[in-house]
Every structure is written in C-alpha cells, then in structure tokens.
Amino acid sequence: MASRGFLDLDVPFFIPVGRRVATVAVASLWGLYELSSGSMLWGVIFLAMAAMAAWKFNATDWEAVAKRDEET
C-alpha cells in the first residue's frame, strides 16, 4: 500500500456528499466565528482550511475512490 499524506482527503470516509459538505461548512463557520470574535489568525487558518478542503473534494474522482476501497 502506498504511503498516504497527512492532508489527503480522498479517503472512503468522505464518499457520502453530506460528510464533505459538513466538513467544509463547519470549517467555514468556525473561521467566520473566529473572525467575528477578533481572532484574525485563527479565522484565516480555518477559512483557508475550508477552501483547501472544498477544492480537494471538488477535484477528487469519488468513483475511483469507491472502486479503490472495494479492491482492498
């Protein structure tokens, strides 16, 4: 089995769309909360994390992930 990176999000756990939406929504809302409470650094970190997750979720071929999961 190939080594997986720490931030690889193309894992079978995220195959259901609801989990992907919840991940991006929670990170976005937490980032907005941090910004509204005056913590600019943490707000930017969480919003960047949400943007990176949304991009990665959009760029992933989920059918290939499901097929890879069935093979193991």
Provide a short characterization of the protein structure.
It contains three helices and no strands. It has 72 residues and is mostly helical.
Write the layout of secondary structure elements.
Blueprint: H1 17-36, H2 40-59, H3 62-71
Put simply, the count of helices is: 3
Mean pLDDT: 91
Structural class designation: mainly alpha
Would you count the extended β strands for me? 0
- Global morphology: elongated
How far do the termini sit from each other? 10 Å
Fraction of residues in helices? 55-70%
Computed CA radius of gyration, to the nearest angstrom: 14 Å
Strand content: under 5%
* Biggest sheet details: none
Q: Could you give the order of the helices and strands? A: HHH
Low-confidence stretches: none
Task: Provide a descriptive summary of the structure in words.
By secondary structure, the chain is an all-alpha fold. The chain is about 70% helix and about 0% strand. The protein is built from 3 helices and no strands. The chain has helices at about 15-35, 40-60, 60-70. Helix 1 runs antiparallel to helix 2 (about 40-60).
